[in-house]
């Protein structure tokens, strides 16, 4: 077996409309696929060469302790300011490291999402 890429990352959500408001309204993502399921719902957002999905389905349970995705932003401080103004809960940071700026926020279900900006020498 040879793994060639990560096909997608997914966050389980409990309320698809509330999640859409967060991911599309606040984060500004545009759906590239919206698929109602017999017992749930699946939405994908193309971000560069990657895909972030949100879904409601049996066995999918949101958790702040699960894996997290970090989203690269063009203007870190502006993103942080927008998130604070929107009342988004911050789980960690913002902090600066030798290679980046980052913070972790929570979506409406408590899932952890990284907000990230590489420093120019590390792009």
Automatic annotation (TrEMBL):
InterPro entries: Anthracycline_SecMetBiosynth, Glyas_Bleomycin-R_OHBP_Dase, Glyas_Fos-R_dOase_dom, VOC_core. Residues 2-118 form the VOC domain. PROSITE patterns: VOC (PS51819). It holds the Pfam family Glyoxalase. Gene3D superfamilies: 2,3-Dihydroxybiphenyl 1,2-Dioxygenase, domain 1 (3.10.180.10). It comes from the Bacteria. This is VOC family protein.
